[in-house]
Design brief:
The protein is mainly alpha-helical. It has 3 helices and no strands. The longest helix has 18 residues.
């Protein structure tokens, strides 16, 4: 599960990385509200046709990348 505090601090970087990886994502698709990570994952899962586990993996990878900067 994604940690909301970690996402909050790095969301803009993660969002940009996700838009590069998944070109069909829009800003509306990537609206993030702290504490509503499950809703975000469900929205992305539906839009991309990708399993939640894969999305979490990709987002965690991008979070680690953002933290390293």
């Amino acid at each position: 599960m994604l940690h909301s505090l970690a996402l909050k601090g790095h969301w803009e970087q993660i969002k940009g990385d996700l838009k590069k990886k998944f070109a069909k994502l829009t800003d509306d698709d990537l609206k993030y509200v702290e504490g509503e990570e499950e809703e975000l994952l469900g929205r992305l899962e539906k839009k991309l046709g990708v399993k939640r586990e894969e999305l979490e993996k990709v987002m965690k990878e991008h979070l680690e990348k953002a933290k390293a900067k």
